[in-house]
Each structure stands twice: as structure tokens, then as C-alpha cells.
């Protein structure tokens, strides 16, 4: 009898926990529209042109950041407007679904809807999987979905957060065969869609914004490698990764890392702490593979006492 009562109480406790978790999980509506538009790239710096005939989600490269919490359900809609010339698709790396169903491509004029639960916390790439996939990604159809972890125990609060997505820039966007087979077709590295996007040092004539933080702040970088072929050796010059959360999951954690290799289609979360004892400190976040760095994969983070209070906060985690 006593054992039975204990078991009943344990079951009741589990039921309460379960319903509490259910109560926090929510449904998030996400709609992305495939848009075939020209976007700015700064490509002239590396022998290309300053605009690319891109294929995009919602008209930007990368597409919009999708942000949910672990356990949330994403109620997703993909629109391929009739004025487009190509089929498009979506592949969320955060989803467990059927590649032949949810991720199948749709023709211009069609719409696709599906739901998935964001079960695993972390930072995940999404991209178009329509054929030829190499071309749809190289032309700009990729982005990031952040699934914030529920358990914050070993996950210190960040003072600032930034999203950086790196990808290879091919000036000849029509030649997908060359993207796969010609090492010389790749001319530049795009960071959030532009060559040397946040680097006033290597492109002093350009109009470049930088990442900013106050001295002594924990800066969290959500990094996605959307390259076609190349891994990324992510290194913060004049600093160190205080923590690397592999795949963005606090359960997968490294400490005191100089360089971390991010595979193609991998995404990870990187924390650094800016020096508290310096009024001004520049840190350059680079792909230490030199051919990528010198083709545009350099991001300057400035730590200073008069840092812009809005950068890296709330909605401003992608610097334009
Ligand atoms: Cu596409």
C-alpha cells in the first residue's frame, strides 16, 4: 500500500513537471518567401561585382534569423511567388521530418506548410535544398535558426550577441559546375552577405560598421559556416574563445580555445570576454585559413567605453 502511494505520488510529480514544460512551449509562426533579387556584395574588392543576382529568403543574404526556444513548435510556411523563375525549398537543420515531403522543392506560384518541434537546443543552418543545391546556397538561400536552450545552468548570460554567417562568393552565379569543380571560381568570403563586411582596416574606403562591446563584456557569436566546400578555422585575433558550445548546445562545451574548426553546414556558439583593463581593444574574428581571411572573412569587434548600447542587444544581433 505504502509502495503504491509512493509510486502514485511520483507519477503525480512527473505529471506536474510534464504539464509545466508543456505550458512554456509555444507555437511560433514563421513565413519565408523565396525572392530572386539583386543584393549588394562588395564583390568588386575581390574581382567580382558589387551586386549579385541572388536567390534569397525574404530578399536578404543571409535570410532572416529565426529564433525560438527549445521545445517550441515552428509552424512554417514557404512561399514561392509566381514571378520567380525557379523552384525552391527549405531545409531546417533543427527539424526531424521527411526529406521527401517537408523539404521537397515547390514550383513558382506554390506554397508549402509544415510544423516541427525544435527539440534540440543550439544554432542551426537553414537553406534551400532545391536542385542544384550548390547553386541555391551559393546564390544566397541560407540563414540561421537559433533554438535557445531551456537549461541555462552552465550557460552564462551574454552581454551582447551577434550572428555571423560565412559563405563563399562566386562571381559567376550561373556556373554551378565551376562551384563544384573549379577551385578558381571561388573569389571571396561573404560575412553576412558581404566581402569584408565589418572590416574598415582591409577596406578603408568602404562604409563598414563593426561589432561593439564594453570592456569586460561577454560577447556571444552565433556562427554558421554556409560555405559550399570549405571548413572555417574561426579564431579571434588578440583574444581567445572563453567557451565554444559545439553546435550551440551548452552540453557540448570547450574552454580556452584559440581556433575552432567549423565544418561545412555546421554552426556553433562562441563566447569571448573583452579585456576589462583596456579602455579600447580591437579584436578581429577571422577565418584563419588565409585564403578565406584575405578574401573577406575578417570581422572587427571593438571593445570601448562608449560602445553603442544598442548593438548586440535584442533584435540588433545582425549588424547591417
Ligand atoms: Cu532555392
**CATH level-4 homologous superfamily of the largest domain:** Cupredoxins -  blue copper proteins
Rg from Cα: 21 Å
Kindly report the oligomeric state of this protein.
Answer: single chain
CATH architecture of the largest domain: Sandwich
- Percentage of residues in DSSP E strands: 35-45%
What is the CATH top level name of the largest domain? Mainly Beta
Helix content: 10-25%
SSE run: HEEEEEEEHEEHEEEEEEEEEEHE
Number of strand elements: 20
| 3D shape | globular
Unreliable spans are: 1-17
Largest sheet composition: 7 strands, mixed
Q: Which topology of the largest domain does CATH recognise?
A: Immunoglobulin-like
Give the mean pLDDT: 93
Tally of helical segments: 4
Largest sheet, spatial ordering of strands: 11-10-9-13-18-15-16
Heteromolecules bound? copper (II) ion
* Count of spatially separate domains: 2
Termini separation: 66 Å
Secondary structure class reads mainly beta
Write up what this structure looks like.
- The protein has 320 residues and is mostly beta strands.
- It has two domains: 26-148, Immunoglobulin-like, CATH 2.60.40; 160-304, Cupredoxins -  blue copper proteins (Immunoglobulin-like, Sandwich).
- It is 12% helix and 38% strand.
- The protein has helices at residues 2-24, 133-138, 176-181, 290-293; strands at residues 27-40, 51-57, 66-69, 73-79, 91-92, 111-117, 122-127, 142-148, 160-169, 188-191, 194-195, 211-213, 218-225, 232-237, 241-245, 253-257, 260-262, 267-273, 280-287, 298-304.
- The protein has a seven-stranded mixed β-sheet, with no helix packed on it.
- A hairpin with a 2-residue loop joins strand 10 and strand 11 (194-195).
- It is globular, with a radius of gyration of 21 Å.
- It starts with a helix and ends in a 16-residue tail after the last strand.
- 41% of the residues are buried.
- Mean pLDDT is 93; it is low at 1-17.
- Copper (II) ion binds at residues 34, 55, 88, 128, 130, 136, 141.
Amino acid at each position: 500500500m505504502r509502495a503504491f502511494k509512493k509510486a502514485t505520488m511520483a507519477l503525480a510529480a512527473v505529471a506536474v513537471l510534464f504539464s509545466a514544460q508543456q505550458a512554456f512551449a509555444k507555437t511560433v509562426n514563421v513565413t519565408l518567401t523565396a525572392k530572386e533579387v539583386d543584393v549588394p556584395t562588395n564583390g568588386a574588392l575581390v574581382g567580382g561585382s558589387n551586386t549579385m543576382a541572388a536567390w534569397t529568403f525574404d530578399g536578404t543574404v543571409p535570410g532572416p534569423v529565426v529564433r525560438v526556444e527549445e521545445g517550441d513548435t515552428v509552424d512554417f510556411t514557404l512561399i514561392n511567388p509566381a514571378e520567380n523563375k525557379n523552384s525552391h525549398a527549405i531545409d531546417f537543420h533543427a527539424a526531424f521530418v521527411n526529406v521527401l515531403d517537408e523539404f521537397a522543392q515547390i514550383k513558382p506560384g506554390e506554397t508549402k506548410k509544415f510544423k516541427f518541434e525544435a527539440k534540440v537546443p543550439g544554432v542551426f543552418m537553414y537553406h534551400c535544398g532545391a536542385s542544384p543545391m550548390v547553386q541555391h546556397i551559393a546564390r544566397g538561400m541560407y540563414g540561421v535558426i537559433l533554438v535557445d536552450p531551456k537549461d541555462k545552468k552552465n550557460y552564462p548570460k551574454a552581454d551582447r550577441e551577434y550572428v555571423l554567417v560565412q559563405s563563399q562568393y562566386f562571381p559567376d552565379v550561373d556556373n554551378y559546375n565551376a562551384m563544384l569543380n573549379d577551385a578558381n571560381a571561388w573569389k571571396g568570403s561573404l560575412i553576412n552577405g558581404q566581402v569584408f563586411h565589418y572590416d574598415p582596416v582591409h577596406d578603408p574606403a568602404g562604409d563598414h560598421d563593426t561589432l561593439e562591446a564594453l570592456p569586460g563584456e561577454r560577447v556571444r557569436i552565433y556562427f554558421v559556416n554556409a560555405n559550399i566546400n570549405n571548413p572555417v578555422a574561426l579564431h579571434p585575433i588578440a583574444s581567445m574563445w572563453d567557451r565554444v558550445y559545439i553546435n550551440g548546445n551548452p552540453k557540448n562545451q570547450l574552454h580556452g580555445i584559440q581556433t575552432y574548426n567549423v565544418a561545412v553546414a555546421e554552426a556553433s556558439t562562441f563566447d569571448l570576454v573583452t579585456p576589462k583593463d583596456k579602455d579600447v581593444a580591437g579584436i578581429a574574428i577571422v577565418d584563419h585559413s588565409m585564403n578565406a581571411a584575405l578574401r573577406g572573412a575578417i570581422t572587427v569587434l571593438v571593445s570601448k567605453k562608449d560602445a553603442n548600447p544598442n548593438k548586440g542587444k535584442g533584435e540588433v544581433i545582425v549588424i547591417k
